[in-house]
Amino acid sequence: MHKHKSNPILDAKLDAVSLSIKQSIKNLDSFTHVRGESLYVDDVNIRQGTFHAVVFDAPKAHGHIKHIDYSKAEALEGVERIFTYKDIPGKNQIGGIIPDEPLFAEDDIHFWGMPIALIVAESEFIARKARALIEIDIEELPVITTAKQAKAKGSFINAPRSFSLGDSEKAFKDCEYVFEGETFSNGQEHLYIEAQGAYAEPLENGNIKITSSTQGPTAVQKTIAQVLGVAMHKIEVDVTRLGGGFGGKEDQATPWAVMTALATFHLNQSVKLILNRHDDLRMTGKRHPYESTYKIGLSKDLKIMAYEVEFLQNSGAAADLSPAIAERTLFHATNSYFVPHVKTTVISCKTNLPPNTAFRGFGGPQGMFVIESAIAKAACEIGVPARVIQEANLLDENDTFSYGQVAKKVEAKNTWSSATELFNITLLEQEVETFNANNSNFKKGLALMPITFGISFTNTPMNHARALVHIYLDGSIGISTAAVEMGQGVNTKMMQIASEVFSIPIEKIKIETTNTTRVANTSPSAASSTADLNGKATLKACKALLKRLISVASEDLNISEEHIQLKDEYVYTHGEKSNLSWTELISKTMLKRVALTENAHYATPEIHFDKTKEKGHPFAYHVYGTAIIIVTVDCTRGTYEFDAVKIVHDYGKSMSEGIDLGQVEGALAQGIGWMTMEEIAYNDEGRLLSNALSTYKIPDLFSVPKEVEVLPVKTDGHELAILKSKAVGEPPLMYGIGAYFALQNAIRAFNPKYDLKFHAPMTPEKVLMSLYENK
Ligand code: LUZ
Ligand code: MOS
Question: What pLDDT digit, counting tens, does each position of 618-627 carry?
Answer without folding.
Answer: 999 999 999 9
